[in-house]
């Protein structure tokens, strides 16, 4: 089983050396640059000689991930942020869960036992709780965390997630991905459920951003997440796939599962 790690970036030159220093043992590392002006691409190439560096074709995190997913060649794709808020050392936790099966989509959760966050303000935590509750009510799921982009899945399922070669076959969907921001994380989670993937959560600890400022705007991005939930719900009646095959939050996958 081969693993591709996709890292969307925009002006992350100060953080990338710390992230890339831990990107050993993976078959492919893809850095997707969103028009950085601080030398992000050059830093990526100098600190990780085998890295694949590409430029995104549009704007926003959604488009960056779409570009990275389409460039990936590994059996498994893992997405992780470039600011060291997500620990690269936790990637095997996601990969091992996929390798053991039957789960086909694994996401990190800051709100499970053994998870946590250094950067979860009261406003962010409250908003996340409301949005999680909405998705769980609408889809019959048991998510504990929603707006967190530490996710792994089988590359063969990109079409089911709407990130295939034609972004689920419609120009409208392609346009959405070209400008989608942080709400893409919710889009992926909801589409995984709608597509009938076997979804599981594993604990993850979110660190504070190492350098620089986040592009996240709590109110603006919260409203965009809400809109994404509504749009995907309206599309539910057009599904050709069963709503869900399974969803089970589980305890930490520890050393016995080969973590690290």
Task: Outline the structure in words.
The chain has helices at 16-20, 40-47, 60-71, 91-100, 122-139, 171-179, 184-194, 218-234; strands at residues 3-9, 28-33, 52-55, 76-79, 105-109, 116-117, 151-154, 198-203, 205-206, 246-247. The protein has 260 residues and is α/β, with parallel strands linked by helices. The chain has a single domain, classed as Spore Coat Polysaccharide Biosynthesis Protein SpsA, Chain A, CATH 3.90.550.10. It has an eight-stranded mixed sheet, with helices on both faces. It has a two-stranded parallel ribbon with strand order 6-9. Strand 1 (3-9), helix 1 (16-20) and strand 2 (28-33) form a beta-alpha-beta unit. Helix 3 packs across helix 6 and helix 5 (122-139) runs parallel beside helix 8. Residues 166-174, 240-244 and 249-260 have low confidence and may be disordered.
């Amino acid at each position: 089983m081969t693993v591709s790690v996709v890292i969307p970036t925009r002006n992350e030159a100060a953080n990338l050396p710390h992230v890339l220093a831990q990107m050993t043992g993976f078959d492919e590392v893809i850095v997707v640059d969103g028009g950085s002006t601080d030398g992000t691409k050059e830093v990526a190439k100098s600190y990780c000689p085998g890295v694949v560096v590409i430029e995104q074709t549009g704007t926003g995190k959604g488009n960056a991930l779409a570009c990275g997913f389409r460039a990936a060649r590994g059996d498994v794709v893992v997405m992780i942020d470039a600011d060291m808020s997500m620990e690269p050392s936790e990637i095997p936790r996601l990969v091992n869960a996929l390798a053991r099966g039957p789960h086909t989509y694994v996401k990190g959760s800051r709100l499970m036992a053994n998870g946590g966050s250094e950067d979860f303000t009261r406003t962010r935590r409250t908003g996340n709780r409301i949005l999680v509750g909405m998705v769980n009510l609408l889809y019959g799921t048991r998510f504990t965390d929603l707006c967190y982009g530490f996710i792994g899945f089988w590359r063969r399922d990109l079409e089911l997630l709407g990130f295939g070669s034609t972004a689920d076959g419609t120009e409208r969907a392609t346009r959405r991905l070209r400008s989608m921001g942080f709400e893409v994380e919710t889009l992926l989670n909801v589409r995984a459920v709608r597509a009938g993937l076997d979804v599981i959560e594993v604990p993850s600890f979110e660190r504070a951003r190492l350098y620089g400022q986040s592009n996240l705007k709590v109110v603006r991005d919260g409203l965009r997440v809400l809109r994404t939930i509504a749009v995907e719900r309206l599309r539910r009646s057009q599904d050709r796939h069963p709503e869900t095959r399974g969803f089970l939050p589980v305890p930490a996958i520890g050393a016995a599962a080969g973590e690290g």
